[in-house]
Design a protein that fits this description.
The protein is an alpha+beta fold. The chain has 2 domains: 32-139, Rieske [2Fe-2S] iron-sulphur domain (Rieske Iron-sulfur Protein, 3-layer Sandwich), CATH 2.102.10.10; 148-358, Naphthalene 1,2-dioxygenase Alpha Subunit, Chain A, domain 1 (Alpha-Beta Complex), CATH 3.90.380.10. The protein has helices spanning 11-14, 16-24, 147-150, 154-161, 182-189, 195-198, 200-205, 294-322, 344-358; strands at 32-36, 45-51, 54-60, 66-70, 84-86, 90-91, 98-99, 105-107, 126-132, 135-139, 168-178, 213-217, 220-226, 246-252, 256-261, 265-275, 278-288. Strands 1-10-9-4-3-2-5 form a 7-stranded antiparallel beta sheet, with no helix packed on it. Strands 11-17-16-15-14-13-12 form a 7-stranded antiparallel beta sheet, sandwiched between helices. A 3-stranded antiparallel beta sheet has the order 6-7-8, with no helix packed on it. The longest helix has 29 residues, at 294-322. The protein is globular. It starts with 10 loop residues before the first helix and ends in a 27-residue tail after the last helix.
């Protein structure tokens, strides 16, 4: 007799040691969001960010290409830049060693006094970078597979759902602190089993929950559903694009998601793990050229006052419960037919979470929707061939 598959043990969420493993492993060996390319649109524009405890900065070069570097001078290790801005040269504030936008050393005070000193031997340490529909992603693993391997077909699908993506720019960013482990928040996002009970506005005024489903595409979880009947929608839909009457989401493991609301409205989630007990979710909303849009602002406000606030209460309660000595991992509700009242997506997600800490398990049960890919990674060992 088959036994139900149980949820992860609480330690995967609450143990600071597990979080430390994740910083060294999965968070440093997966594709992580850096910035939107529009924020560094001109050569010499840069922005800083943090990945797995490392300070990184991205800068656009003379050739128009975005490159990312560890934010550390190759002289005596002072950090090079802070925040965001534009610069003619990257100049270390400690001893004024300078680098160009491609990371090559240009000069420094009195270096000619050093016999044999060759500036061509010194350059900043570059980080793997990919541009994905105008969004910049980085991976600290120099041997990592490209994003298309990790998230097959996601780019092509998003280009179809957001055909004007080249003209899309950020309209607003909202930082949402949550007192929980990052994986609790990601799990909550990755199932709609809780939606009808907890998200009334979303379930009755945006989507039709009966059509909601989530399926894995490599290390992507693809959400699909139809929009609510037009006479019940909480906002007006204006779009001449395909899929105008659908909702879809592409969660890119481990910490980023593209969402396209009915009307082809693009928005994003980006999780930044602070420690085992805290995560900040950056909620992004976009418009053509980043220009003011009353419709997008209205939808963003509705989302913030309903779904976002509702989810904060849920994830923080779950995390308190995970710290209770009375918690025992219960069975996941995995329906072979999938659908909204099934946790088949959590089965896949928790497999990735477990692999990130313990490595892959070949004997793990398989289902139609959660079948292991032949290339499923051990995040501490995967290398490109």
């Amino acid at each position: 007799m088959n036994q139900p598959i149980r949820s992860l043990e609480a330690r995967y969420y609450t143990d600071p040691g597990v979080f430390a493993q994740e910083c060294e492993g999965v968070l440093a060996r997966t594709w992580q969001f850096a910035c939107h390319g529009g924020s560094i649109g001109k050569p010499g524009e840069y922005t800083t960010f943090e990945i797995a405890g490392e300070s990184i900065f991205a800068i656009r070069g003379r050739d128009g290409k975005v490159r990312a570097f560890y934010n550390v001078c190759q002289h005596r290790a002072h950090q090079l830049v802070q925040g965001a801005g534009r610069t003619k040269l990257i100049t270390c504030p400690y001893h004024a060693w300078t680098y160009d936008w491609e990371g090559k050393m240009k000069g420094g005070p009195n270096i000619r006094a050093v016999a044999g000193f060759d500036t061509s031997d010194v350059c900043l340490t570059e980080v793997r970078t990919e541009e994905f529909l105008g969004f910049i992603f980085v991976n600290l693993d120099e041997d990592a597979e490209p994003m298309e391997f990790w998230y097959p077909n996601a780019r092509a699908q998003l280009e179809e759902w957001v055909p004007n993506y080249k003209h899309i720019r950020p309209l607003e960013w909202v930082e949402i602190p949550e007192r929980c482990n990052w994986k609790v928040s990601v799990e909550n996002y990755s199932e709609c089993y809780h939606c009808m009970l907890n998200h009334h506005t979303f379930s009755t005024g945006v989507v039709q929950p009966a059509t909601y489903d989530i399926q894995p595409q490599g290390y992507c979880l693809r959400h699909t559903t139809e929009c609510q009947n037009l006479d019940k929608m909480t906002y007006e839909i204006h779009s001449g694009f395909k899929h105008w009457d659908e909702y879809s989401s592409w969660f890119l493991w481990p910490m980023f998601s593209f969402q396209v609301y009915p009307g082809n409205v693009l928005n994003t989630y980006h999780w930044r793990a602070i420690n085992a007990d805290n995560v900040v979710v950056w909620r992004g909303w976009y418009s053509v050229g980043g220009e003011e849009s009353a419709a997008v602002r209205k939808l963003a406000l509705q989302d913030r006052e309903t779904t976002v606030e509702e989810d904060i209460r849920l994830v923080e309660s779950v995390y308190r419960g995970l710290k209770s000595r009375g918690y025992r991992p219960g069975p996941l509700v995995v329906d072979p037919a999938c659908g909204v009242n099934s946790e088949h997506s959590i089965l896949s997600l928790q497999r990735w979470m477990r692999e990130a800490v313990d490595g892959p398990c070949a004997s793990e049960p398989r289902t139609r929707s959660g079948a292991r890919r032949a290339d499923s990674s051990d995040f501490t060992k995967r290398r490109r061939t």
